[in-house]
Specification:
heterodimer, A: about 325 residues, mainly alpha, 13 helices, about 0% strand, B: about 170 residues, alpha/beta, Rossmann fold, 8-stranded mixed beta sheet, two-stranded antiparallel ribbon, globular
């Protein structure tokens, strides 16, 4: 009768001892991982990774938010040195999943804050990547993937976040880059379509967006200019008529966007300048003269290759 | 939140489509007229009266790329009409109206196609007058003036003109 409680007591004590040894071992491992990580030496960071990967598998520490947050920081250190510019990165995915896991384990305020900062950093990385892919490699598809991932990350941080201003900014950048490409190479229909879709998206979000309206208008205008430039001097009158028709169509499309900008803001020098060129293209001398004067008053400088009617008359009097 | 670099709006091209169109028209006119033999000997001269930098630039470009028959195209320009300049085409810039009559009388049978760009041009003796209809460049044709200038004309040219003065 005496022996049973004794055995049970021994068993409990042994279990507690083993558990405490286990806990101590895990705490030791966590401590070690942290020290290795904080040394910031690449070789040590790799060791920290091995350490923390075993921690998150251990039954004692797998539900500890500290292990998961530490893991995300260790992986982030490796990621920023090697995979920051990759659209698809296992390291980045591990960071995100570790932060998500840590957040599910009710972290204290400090860890919650650290998790948030790290996620913001990952989101910013995606955003910069989306920009880099537009500006450097003109890879619109990959850029869009990066941009959508940036949005997903920020939704984790703020589920009710409104992306309208970011969508405008992103599409405006895309529209400007691709409209410039199209203006330089009128046969680049892909660039034209990307630019149009992006700029129309901006206008859908912000009807009176000056940059989008002007860029879209200028895209049509410059397309008309290119038609004229490409017209062979030896074209016959049928071809000339066809080209003139198309120039007029494009100029009128341009007019609706550019004129809208000027109507909303008559101090917008770029719109006044563009309207001068546009009405000159449409052979509307009174209007082109009017907008030339307005543009000059707003600080636009013109060469004397396009005199107004008044300037022409003065020239003749001389 | 992070931000993208602001993109400046694109620049409108300052290319003058109107001047390009006029240059194309002027070159096209050469297909529909026959100049006297003496005007086929040297360069084919297009004489622009009045200051018109963008048209001059277009015509110089044209002259570097095209010929009229075997003739090289040469471009001349003076601010005011100079009757001593021998040419195949005389183009009067808009607002230069008065010298057209002078040019027409001095060029009788001399083989110069006079082209103007004001409502009175054809009445003053120009063979062709540029007009603008529905934002398009078109032209009126004064056949009598062309004949008086010593040019042989092709009948199908009449169909291309907006208005014909026979």
């Amino acid at each position: 009768m005496y022996k049973l409680p004794k055995i049970i007591t021994k068993l409990i004590l042994s279990t507690l001892l083993l558990l405490s040894i286990g806990v101590y071992a895990q705490e030791e491992k966590l401590f070690r991982a942290r020290v290795l990580y904080e040394s910031k030496i690449p070789a040590n960071i790799e060791l920290a990774r091995l350490c923390v990967d075993s921690l998150i598998l251990d039954s004692i520490t797998k539900d500890d938010f500290i292990s998961w947050t530490l893991r995300s920081f260790i992986y982030f250190d490796i990621y920023k040195r090697s995979e920051k510019n990759k659209l698809n990165s296992d390291l980045r995915d591990t960071i995100i999943s570790s932060i998500k896991k840590s957040n599910l384990l009710n972290p204290d305020e400090t860890y919650l804050g650290n998790n948030k900062k790290l996620l913001q950093n990952i989101g910013a990385g995606y955003f910069n990547l989306s920009k880099k892919m537009l500006e450097d490699s003109l890879d619109e598809e990959k850029s869009l993937i990066a941009y959508n991932r940036f949005k997903e990350i920020y939704k984790i941080l703020e589920p009710d976040i409104n992306f309208t201003s970011k969508d405008i900014e992103y599409n405006l950048t895309k529209g400007s880059i691709f409209s410039d490409i199209f203006i330089k190479d009128n046969n680049n229909n892909k660039a034209q379509n990307i630019a149009k879709v992006a700029l129309l998206k901006v206008i859908e979000l912000d009807m009176n967006n000056e940059s989008a309206n002007i860029n879209l208008g200028l895209m049509y205008y410059n397309q008309a200019v290119n038609l004229s430039k490409e017209l062979d001097y030896g074209a016959d009158f049928t071809q000339i008529d066809f080209i003139q028709e198309n120039i007029i169509k494009l100029a009128k499309q341009a007019e609706q966007f550019i004129f809208k900008v000027y109507t909303k803001n008559n101090k917008n020098a770029r719109s006044a300048e563009a309207l001068f060129y546009l009405y000159r293209m449409l052979l509307d001398e009174p209007k082109s003269d009017q907008f030339k004067k307005i543009a000059i008053d707003l600080g636009v400088k013109f060469g004397d290759e396009t005199p107004t009617k008044e300037e022409k008359l003065n020239e003749e009097k001389k | 939140m992070i931000s993208l670099r602001f993109q400046q709006p694109s620049q409108p091209s300052n290319f003058d489509t109107n001047s390009k169109m006029k240059a194309v028209f002027l070159y096209n006119f050469t297909r529909y007229f026959e100049w006297p033999e003496k005007k086929k000997e040297n360069n084919f001269i297009i004489y622009v009266v009045g200051k018109n930098e963008s048209l001059m630039s277009e015509l110089k470009n044209l002259s570097s790329k095209k010929k009229v028959g075997n003739q090289e195209i040469e471009i001349k320009n003076t601010p005011h009409f100079d009757s001593d300049i021998i040419s195949n085409i005389i183009y009067f810039s808009p607002n230069i109206i008065n010298p057209i009559s002078d040019a027409a009388s001095k060029n009788k049978k001399q083989g110069a196609l006079i082209v103007g760009e004001t409502p009175e041009s054809c009445n003053k003796g120009a063979s062709i007058n540029f007009v603008i209809i529905d934002n398009k460049l078109k032209f009126e044709y004064n056949k009598n003036a062309a004949v008086k200038a010593g040019l042989e004309t092709k009948e199908d040219f009449k169909a291309l003109a907006l208005k014909v003065i026979d």
